[in-house]
Input
Amino acid sequence: MAQQQQETSGHSSGEFVDDTADCEARETAYRERGTARPITVVGNPVLHKECQDVTAFDDGLASLIDDMFASQRAAEGVGLAANQIGVDLKVFVYDCVDDDGVRHVGAVCNPVLDELPAGDRSLDDSNEGCLSVPGAYEALARPDHAIVRGLDAEGKPVAIRGTGYFARCLQHETDHLYGYLYIDRLSKRERKGALRQMAEGTPRYETVPND
Output
């Protein structure tokens, strides 16, 4: 996801990983091991289909996650899905600050969003952007609270909870792995506007040309 221009009832806090500890050291270690790759953009087929589940939690996956953190930093993003660097696997990484200014860093494989009761959330219609739609921003209503469940890089169950901007990031990245970009959730007029913004701009990072 591109950078932007409460507790949930019924869940024990013990279920959730602490993705706020040692953020700078963890992100730096991932990034320095990795190599930045170019970003795929809207129209590339890998972005428009559901990705394959991660089944091998091995050195290859660890290396991919390192490259994803390096690519995310190079593109100045706050979240990145594997298909955004052309890899057909359900994994995303994030380095995102929530609305309280708390930084979250992590990686999730095979993510699934919880269906939260309406009483536990409200809609936030802030602007949203995407590294795969470079230079474009449009308002998009999303729940202001999100819980993602999946597996970590070693295949262990994890749950991540986000509010505000971080909740938007978790939803945005999970969408990617099921073949949806944020512009797919816009009206036809808004989608055309986002694509026009993209066409009129120049990406500030390396992208993969569409054939």
User: Anything to note?
Assistant: Residues 44 and 183 are 14 Å apart (CA to CA). The two ends are 23 Å apart (CA to CA).
